[in-house]
Amino acid sequence: MSVMDAPGFTGGTLDRSDALRHDPEGLAAAQRDWRARLLVLDGLLPSTTDDGRLAWTSMADMPDDADPILLGLDESGRPHFAALLNGMRVDNAPAMRSPALMAVLAALASGEAATYAGARSVIDWHVRHGFCAKCGSPTAVFRAGWARKCPNCATEHFPRVDPVVIMIAEHDGRALLGRGKGWPPGRYSALAGFVEPAESMEEAVAREILEESGVRVGKVRYVASQPWPFPSSLMMACVAEAEDDAITLDVNELEDAMWVPREMVRAVLRGEDGPFVAPPPYAIAYTLLKEWAGE
Known about the structure:
single chain, about 300 residues, alpha+beta, 6-stranded mixed beta sheet, 4-stranded mixed beta sheet, 7 helices
């Protein structure tokens, strides 16, 4: 196979600066740094410049009642922040993927997409987790925006990441692809599902493929991973060897599923017409198909 392209939302260029998160005086100095930059967001949506780059402004534009989230330092040591707005709610901050957002993400450079993904995921987590899961009290932001702490019981809460397996089963030189309900016309992609408690990645791959398509698989091979900020998942891409090719579709999960020969996958990834429309390049399903097809 060819050298694999970096999956979308990876390749971040900012130093996450964990030590600074534990240094209140250093963090305050970073906020006062005249070079510091603030990410421009419309709710959870990115704002971009005319040339398609992420838009940044100065810390002077940080709202007085907002909590700063340290995104990291660039190579020159310049701090980069995002703002957690007071009173922000999930239902008034556009969180779902829209065609306009997808177009913006497709145009962002890999490092910038990673920066946006981190900011979006952490802000979304804060908005959803304002109360202590132990005692129910309102929590406060600390650790430069990368945690919340309960003033009542002192429990610390950290941003969650949900593990998700995304995979293709292969059989006789063909890949199993599925189509979800409500997807764009012609779109097929890898199957996917959340890893459950007390389950390994490989077990989750086998279970999800069986549940959604009725196909039993044996050996599972890990390929790559990708952060997915909708709202905050870690997509772990795998290829599994199918024991047979009989499909029994779970219509509650999938609209359709089909086996696609390797050469046809290659043709579609090259932009040629075929029986399906490929996932977008920033999705790890695209990376997975490209790696499997040897493109």
